[in-house]
Design goal:
The structure is a single chain. The protein is α+β, with helices and mostly antiparallel strands. It contains eight helices and twelve strands. Helix content is 32%, strand content 21%. The strands form two sheets. A six-stranded mixed sheet has the order 5-3-4-2-1-6, covered by helices on one side. A hairpin with a 2-residue loop joins strand 3 and strand 4.
């Protein structure tokens, strides 16, 4: 009778077993779903917005000396691609992808790393992390604020001075027809405040960096004081949670241009900052406001 193979694996106290266990732990850590995947990166709130609801936007950066672009979505919703533009090789990494792991920040890190060395014409369907995937803040400068360009179409999918194939042109045309006009509000104290025209009404979605509990207390204080508004033509619609952050949403008069909402949003932001600085217990009226606001929350993921 042959020898039993039951105990033929690496001994638990062997060096090989320790390395295997460490490798598996690293892999599980990367693939786990962190509560705030983009935490520790200055652009966290805008990355969340581009990942979740911005239709078409791009932001340039450099990785390992190569020109790169982070995009909301790439053709075919692939994770990354590389192309040559005017003699310059540029890599693209998409946030809205067909296939992703539970750790979307690690996916982006993997896509950026791949696009920094791939050849023009190559594309990457999915970019799940592995044991060699660096943290996102090791791939891009964590102190970098993204220089975002908001597009009202997907024509940037087609390289300049190139004639797209008929199927590619048709894909771009279909995407252009479905897009909703969007804008990122620019002004003092405004970060990741996004306007979108949804047709019958417009919305402001403001991705906030504070902890959910802190922000909810501040919103409750404003609601109880009658200040949870951007003024005439606006209505607080509720909030949603995504990637560990809370996103207050306001319904807006769609007849008004997005730039007309900059001053009211800055004013609201100042009131919100004041409310965030208060550490006194909530009054009974403020507690009722908090409970009502919580009932109008939605969790995306």
């Amino acid at each position: 009778m042959g020898k039993s193979k039951r105990n033929s694996g690496p001994k638990q106290d062997s060096n090989r077993a320790a390395k295997l266990a460490q490798r598996e732990a690293e892999r599980e850590s990367l693939q786990a779903a962190p509560v705030r995947p983009f935490q520790g990166v200055e652009a966290e709130c805008d990355l969340v917005a581009m990942r979740e609801f911005v239709p078409s936007a791009t932001a340039p950066l450099a990785v390992d000396g190569r020109s790169m672009t982070i995009a909301t979505v790439l053709p075919g919703a692939v994770a990354a691609l590389v192309r040559e533009e005017s003699g310059d090789v540029r890599g693209f990494a998409g946030l809205q992808v067909q296939v992703h792991s539970p750790n979307v920040a690690a996916d982006l890190s993997s896509a950026l790393s791949w696009a920094s060395i791939a050849q023009p014409g190559e594309s990457l369907e999915s970019a799940g992390p592995d044991g060699n995937t660096p943290a996102l803040k090791e791939v891009l400068d964590p102190t970098l604020e993204l220089d975002i360009t908001v597009h009202q179409d997907f024509n940037w999918w087609i390289p300049e001075n190139s004639e797209p194939a008929a199927d590619v042109a048709a894909t771009v045309e279909r995407a252009n027809q479905a897009i909703m006009p969007s804008a990122r509000l620019e002004g003092e104290g405004l970060t990741a405040a996004w306007w979108v025209d949804a047709g019958d009404k417009a919305h402001l979605r403001w991705v906030r960096p504070e902890s959910e509990d802190e922000l909810m207390l501040a919103l409750a204080r404003l609601h109880a004081a009658g200040d949870l508004s951007l003024g005439e033509g606006s209505r607080y619609a509720g909030s949603f949670r995504t990637h560990g952050l809370l996103v207050p949403v306001f319904d807006l008069d769609s007849e008004m241009h997005p730039t007309e909402w900059v001053a009211p949003t800055i004013e609201f932001g100042n009131k919100l900052a004041e409310a965030l600085s208060v550490d006194a217990p909530l009054t009974s009226e403020q507690r009722r406001s908090r409970d009502g606001l919580r009932s109008r929350q939605v969790t995306l993921r």
